[in-house]
């Protein structure tokens, strides 16, 4: 099945089973804004807990805050967002659709990479165990030709980004004959910059209102609270401040479901270090964050680093962790060495010192910062995309199953009486009431047991407990595993321990320790 079709099925599945709904749907929706349904919010909260606990429990020098969405407007002047928070946009004159120029070029480069990979895969099948991939990539004419073309375009692209050369970005699109996906034509406008911040007004009267912004990132709330946290927590450098919160960007090119939205949620940690040590800590957090992703078990081959072609004005190193989505490798997390830019800017604009006195060096300095920033919504999409599976069973039946890691699953256990009579529902309710204090449970007595299993498979419930007539005789139940569909009998007293051991988020955290 084509990846595009798989993605459509994932989007449909999310709506059908209560994970994600289009926002304001009864009013025909609002572009690039989504609501999380009853199961989606549980999965989202579990992802956030996994991140939060991995930061604050596993690192004694990382603490959390929750800063306000509204902040003084000068903060955004100091951070550079008022003057430089822009996307390079280009319009197709025939389709009237607008695109990010850099994304069009990145997708063109990705298509060349796919061509090269297909050549390698074909050769690997042809030569079998004797295949030498390195030698093939260095000698095959088609691979070399595609690689040369890719390297030439990439070099132009990186230089244009770093120079802020919008004319060259357009020229690359023209030279590479990149067409609009809608109209199929190459009738492009000039490339223009567009600021992404939402502005509003704060105040009781129109005359006295102050222009403020919905925050486009959560990091600045951490920076302006740096000294508050450091002094009240008696924190010593190096230390980090973590935060989960909403951010808002007026994305013109918002697409690919919840991958790029106008209202989204971030999990960010700013790690404050002594000047000169930032690049070592940058490498440390690169490794730590990749380990966090890989612990979910979605396959190491589905992750890669992507170093930035253009560094932000505040950074001296930056890389993305990319995950293989149904539409290709895409960024889910960024790790940036932000130098001392943010704290120095806030010191300059506020007139307040943002320095740390280092007792070991007996001197004061503005700390450098290493940032890890992950989009909750993109992480959610990567989990759902990896978990979605269609399986052919014996007898020709197909089941749709979400193989969500048990610790993240919205519902950990389904309690199912075999039939709606003979005291089985009452016994099942008794078990449900005992277990619901330990983890998220769902009770279901409607339809045949097979159909109920399928419903639980479709929402990713890792375990089902079935209460049958034998339960009334010997106090044992059947526990069914979602992934293997194997069943085993355990006593009622063993259920909580059995399920807790396999679904507790501690099991994920122990992989990281």
Automatic annotation (TrEMBL):
Localization per record: Cytoplasm
E.C. numbers: 6.1.1.14
Enzyme class: ligase
GO molecular function, one term: bis(5'-nucleosyl)-tetraphosphatase (asymmetrical) activity
GO-annotated cellular components: cytoplasm; extracellular exosome; microvesicle
Keyword Hydrolase found: no
InterPro entries: aa-tRNA-synt_IIb, aa-tRNA-synth_II, aa-tRNA-synth_II/BPL/LPL, Anticodon-bd, Anticodon-bd_dom_sf, Gly-tRNA_synthase/POLG2, Gly_tRNA_ligase_bac, GlyRS-like_core
Record: residues binding substrate: 100, 217, 264-268, 371-375
Example GO biological process: glycyl-tRNA aminoacylation
Catalytic activity: tRNA(Gly) + glycine + ATP = glycyl-tRNA(Gly) + AMP + diphosphate
Family listed: Belongs to the class-II aminoacyl-tRNA synthetase family.
NCBIfam families: glyS_dimeric, PRK04173.1
Summary of subunit composition and partner proteins: Homodimer.
PANTHER family in the record: DNA POLYMERASE SUBUNIT GAMMA-2, MITOCHONDRIAL (PTHR10745:SF8), GLYCYL-TRNA SYNTHETASE/DNA POLYMERASE SUBUNIT GAMMA-2 (PTHR10745)
Protein name: Glycine--tRNA ligase
Organism: Petrimonas mucosa
């Amino acid at each position: 099945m084509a990846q595009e079709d798989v993605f459509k099925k994932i989007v449909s599945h999310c709506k059908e089973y209560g994970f994600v709904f289009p926002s304001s749907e009864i009013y025909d929706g609002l572009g690039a804004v989504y609501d999380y349904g009853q199961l989606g919010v549980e999965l989202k909260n579990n992802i956030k807990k996994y991140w939060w606990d991995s930061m604050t429990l596993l690192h004694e020098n990382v603490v959390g805050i929750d800063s306000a969405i509204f902040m003084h407007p000068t903060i955004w002047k100091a951070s550079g967002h008022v003057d430089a928070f822009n996307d390079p946009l280009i319009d197709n004159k025939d389709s009237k659709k607008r695109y990010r120029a850099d994304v069009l070029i990145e997708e063109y480069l990705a298509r060349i990479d796919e061509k090269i990979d297909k050549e390698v895969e074909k050769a690997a099948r042809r030569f079998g165990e004797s295949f030498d991939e390195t030698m093939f990539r260095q000698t095959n004419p088609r691979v070399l030709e595609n690689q040369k073309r890719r390297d030439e375009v990439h070099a132009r692209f990186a230089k244009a980004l770093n120079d802020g050369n919008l004319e060259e970005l357009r020229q690359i699109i023209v030279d590479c004959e990149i067409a609009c996906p809608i109209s199929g034509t190459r009738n492009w406008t000039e490339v223009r910059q567009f600021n992404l911040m939402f502005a509003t007004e704060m105040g009781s009267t129109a005359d006295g209102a102050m222009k403020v912004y919905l925050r486009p990132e959560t990091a600045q709330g951490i920076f302006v609270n740096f000294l508050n946290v450091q002094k009240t927590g008696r924190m010593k450098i190096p230390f980090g401040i973590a935060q989960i919160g909403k951010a808002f960007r007026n994305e013109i090119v918002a697409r690919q479901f919840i991958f790029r939205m106008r209202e989204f949620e971030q999990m960010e940690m700013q790690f404050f270090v002594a000047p000169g040590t930032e690049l070592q800590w940058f490498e440390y957090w690169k490794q730590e964050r990749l380990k966090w992703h890989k612990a979910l078990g979605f396959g190491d081959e589905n992750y890669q680093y992507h170093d930035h072609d253009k560094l932000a004005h505040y950074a001296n190193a930056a890389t993305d962790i990319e995950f293989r989505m149904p539409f290709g490798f895409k960024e889910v997390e960024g790790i940036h060495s932000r130098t001392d830019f943010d704290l120095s800017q806030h010191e300059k604009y506020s007139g307040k010192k943002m320095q740390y006195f280092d007792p070991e060096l007996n001197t004061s300095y503005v700390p450098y910062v290493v940032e890890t920033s992950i989009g909750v919504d993109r992480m959610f999409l990567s989990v759902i995309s990896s978990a979605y599976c269609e399986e052919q069973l014996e007898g020709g039946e197909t089941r749709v199953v979400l193989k969500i890691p048990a610790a993240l699953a919205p519902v950990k256990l389904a309690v199912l009486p075999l039939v709606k009579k003979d005291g089985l529902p009452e016994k099942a309710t008794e078990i449900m009431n005992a277990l619901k204090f330990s983890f998220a449970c769902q009770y279901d007595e409607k339809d045949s047991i097979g159909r109920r299993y399928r419903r639980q498979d479709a929402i990713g419930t890792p375990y089902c407990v079935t209460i049958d007539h034998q339960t009334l005789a010997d106090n044992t139940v059947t526990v069914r595993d979602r992934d293997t569909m194997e069943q085993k009998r355990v006593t009622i007293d063993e259920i909580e321990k059995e399920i807790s051991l396999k679904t507790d988020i501690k099991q994920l955290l122990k992989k990281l320790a």
